[in-house]
Design goal:
2 domains; globular; Glutaredoxin; alpha+beta; single chain; Glutathione S-transferase Yfyf (Class Pi), Chain A, domain 2; four-stranded mixed beta sheet
């Protein structure tokens, strides 16, 4: 990350909310706080899908840079992805994807308000953080889930079947239309099958390949390889 971008980010974090717009452009240029081989990989793919005007603030998670004061001043949760745009800080996966895709509607991968697919699109964007990840973390940590009446996802099997039944209708989550939600789920299922947290069934495997073989995903993967190669040991 350049010294100029570092300084601008720090000034942004320290400034009053009403003054933050002066530190960011009023255009559609965005800054993605990103770490290769992390959950922010999907957000990078999305920016490529959108043909967005963006720059990266790259964090080295192995050096714990996401927990250092400079970044915590920006995002107290110490997580990526995080997006800066026109005075706004956007975090949380579903919000990041919805925000970026709405910022570039001409890319055609976000159903507009009034489109019958808008509701299902939002459903699957937020199903990820509301149901899928909580269930996955409980399963990976070998924790007993809360009773179905209080669990955010009910039970693991129902949560996963709800997703895979939708994928089986294919080729994408919303049928024939590829959306930003597929970027989120294609990348999420790639890493969760890689770590054997989700079974790589034929339906899931075909879906992952369909999403991650797209040119935007290949460009983003190449950028991450270059970032890792350039990173200090």
């Amino acid at each position: 990350m350049s010294e100029e971008l570092e300084a601008r980010t720090l000034r942004y974090a320290a400034s009053p909310v009403d003054d933050r717009k002066h530190f960011m452009t009023s255009s559609r240029h965005v800054t993605l706080c990103h770490a290769p081989q992390s959950r922010s990989a999907g957000a990078l793919i999305l920016l490529e899908e959108l043909g967005a005007d963006y720059e990266l603030r790259v964090l080295n998670l192995k050096k714990n840079e996401q927990r250092q004061p400079a970044y915590l001043a920006l995002n107290p949760m110490g997580k990526v992805p995080a997006v800066l745009h026109d005075g706004a800080l956007v975090t949380e996966q579903g919000a990041v994807y919805a925000y970026l895709a709405d910022l570039y509607p001409e890319a055609g991968i976000t159903p507009a308000i009034g489109d019958p697919l808008r509701g299902p699109y939002l459903r699957w964007l937020f199903y990820y953080g509301s149901s899928f990840e909580p269930a996955l973390i409980d399963r990976s940590m070998k924790r007993e889930p809360a009773p179905p009446s209080t669990s955010p996802y009910g039970d693991f099997e129902t949560m996963l079947k709800t997703l895979t039944d939708q994928l089986a209708k294919g080729p994408y989550l919303l049928g024939e239309r590829f959306t930003a939600a597929d970027v989120l789920w294609g990348t999420a299922l790639r890493w969760t099958t890689m770590f054997k947290l989700v079974a790589e069934t034929p339906v899931v495997k075909a879906y992952i390949e369909r999403v991650t073989s797209r040119p935007a995903a290949q460009r983003a993967a190449k950028k991450d390889v270059e970032l890792l190669a350039a990173r200090e040991p």
